[in-house]
Structure formats: C-alpha cells, structure tokens
Amino acid sequence: MKLKKLKSILDGVETFDSPNVDLEQYPTPPDIAAEMLHHVFSSGDIEGKLILDLGCGGGILSIGASILGASQVVAIDIDSGPLEIFQSNLEEFEVTNISMLQASVSHLSSMMRMKADTVIMNPPFGTRNKGADLMFLEIASSLCSKHIYSLHKTSTREHLIRKAEKRGLKCEVIAQLRYNIDKIYGFHKRDSRDIEVDFIKCWNARPT
Amino acid sequence: MKLLTHNMLTSKAIKGVQTGFPLNIVVKKTKTVETEFSSEFIQRMLPKLDWPAFLKAAQTLGVGSQLPDSPPTETTDETVLRSIHHALVEVEVIEGELICPETERKFPISNGIPNMLLNEDEI
C-alpha cells in the first residue's frame, strides 16, 4: 500500500479530545503514524505478525497495522476514555483482529506470559512523568521477540539511547520527524508548535 | 477478549501470587467475529500457547468440542487448524470476569475489554 493511501485512511481514525496531562497523552498524527507503519511494514515486521501496541490511545497504530496485514494486534492502555474511542474506531473500520486490554504498562512484564513478534508504540515523552519513556521501552523489550518501533523526543535522544543500551537494548534512529502538537494543554503557551521526534527501532542485544 | 489474549494473561503482578495462570473465566456474553485465517500464523502460535489453559477456556466458551486433547503436531490438517483459529481469535468474551486462580481477585471484562488495573496496595 502506498504511503499516501495509508495516511488518507488513517486520517479517518478518531482521536481522544480530552487528553490526560499526567499520562502525557498526545495523539499520534496520521502522517507520522503512516510513515512509521510504512517503514515497519517494509521491514517485514507487520505482515502475519502478532503485534503489541503499548499506550495505544485511540488505536491509530493498531488500526494501521491491521490494515497492513498484521495477523493479530493486542492493544493496551491504562485509560478507559481512549479505549472507548478505539472501540468505536474498530466498529467504524470493521477491524476484527485487534484485542484491547486496560492495564498499566508498568505491570505488564509480570502480566503477560507470551512474547509478541513486534511492538509498536508512541509512549509518553517522559517530560512530565520522568522515566516513563524508558520504562515503556524496557517493558516492550521484555514482551517482544524481535523489534520495537517507538517515538521519542529528539532532545532526549542521547540520554535515552545510553540508558536503553545499559539495559541490553540496541537502538537505531530511523528518522527524525516533526510532530505538530496543537495546543492541547493549558501550559502550552503557543497555539501550535513543532516538537522534534525520533522514530526509533530497538531490539534485544542478547536475545533470550 | 479473545482467548489468545486470555492465554497471554496472568495475575502474577499481584503481591504474593506465584503463577496466576490460567485466569478463570466467567462468561456473561460472547460475540463471534470473522477474521482472516492463516494456517501459518496458527501453527506459529501453537508452541507459544498453553494448550490445557486454551482447551479449558474454549470449553467454558462452548467452542472446545472440535479441539484435540493435546496440541497438534506439525502435520495438522486444515480443519483442526481452523477450529483452533475459531476458538483462539474469533470468539470473544464481551461481558464477564477473569478471576485470579490464587487470590480470587476479579478483573471485570466489559465491552470486550478486560480491566487488569491493580491498586497500589495489591502490588
């Protein structure tokens, strides 16, 4: 599927309209989701795979993965609000190979006894909730037998990669993207601003 | 909740729980969806599945009668793989509960979504 086609499909995915500041919920814009998934697909990590989406929100990454031929997707979020929107997106898109789960990603390592092939995620940036970005990566690596694809703030790149490598992960920055965050929260002074975001691929340096 | 998800989940995150698997299922409402069958995917899932847990869960949902008593080996005919596919990813618990086998802690399933959130004092 062409990137443009994927983006136009993902334009139709509803996102949540009252994000939770403490959870650092930022909806993934359709152009970024499409670019990310297109790359993951080309790397052979979607078609026929069992995929986990951590911090799935309204489900744009899961739905995109399903459209691109994932066998099954398990999508997890701590917050029931976005999951309800996800549910209505599933009905809208008539997607039947996604299962949702309400859980805290921080507990998932001991809650899941099976590894997925691929993890796709847009975790909290870890700005307000220090270390949340690294926590998501660590949990993802314990639940994934191949590759993790994730979005992180470019400004914390060196710190994040250093920490991740200390925990036995290999990281590769695939692309640097511009993430336009509309003024969602009161503390954003301007109406809209761009944040530099890294699209990162990680895997276990010592496969278990 | 699909039985694939059920086969993944444990309640081991609860303080003091040893294995927390398999979670018992209370079924109040189910739904059947149609999803694309891939024999390759099902065959790849077989070694990951805990077969006795899957079989018991499928029986609870009333879709276990077509399933073999032990996990099928390599040369499996498509009919068996299709029955596994059906029980694993096409039948969903919409309303019900998951129950920790050790503590009896209940996790509600509503609108098809299991709520596995734990309170701070449980972990």
Automatic annotation (TrEMBL), chain A:
First and last residue of the signal peptide: none
Chain ranges passing through the membrane: none
Source taxon at top rank: Eukaryota
InterPro entries xrefs: DNA_methylase_N6_adenine_CS (IPR002052), rRNA_MeTrfase/Polyamine_Synth (IPR051720), SAM-dependent_MTases_sf (IPR029063)
CDD domains: AdoMet_MTases
One function term, GO molecular function aspect: nucleic acid binding
Protein name (database record): Methyltransferase-like protein 5
Protein source organism: Galendromus occidentalis (western predatory mite)
From TrEMBL, chain B:
Example GO biological process: tRNA methylation
GO terms, molecular function: protein heterodimerization activity
Matching Gene3D superfamilies: 2.20.25.10
Superkingdom as given in the UniProt entry: Eukaryota
InterPro entries referenced in this protein's UniProt entry, alphabetically: Trm112 (IPR039127), Trm112-like (IPR005651)
Pfam families referenced in this protein's UniProt entry, alphabetically: Trm112p
Similarity-based family: Belongs to the TRM112 family.
Protein's name according to its UniProt entry: Multifunctional methyltransferase subunit TRM112-like protein
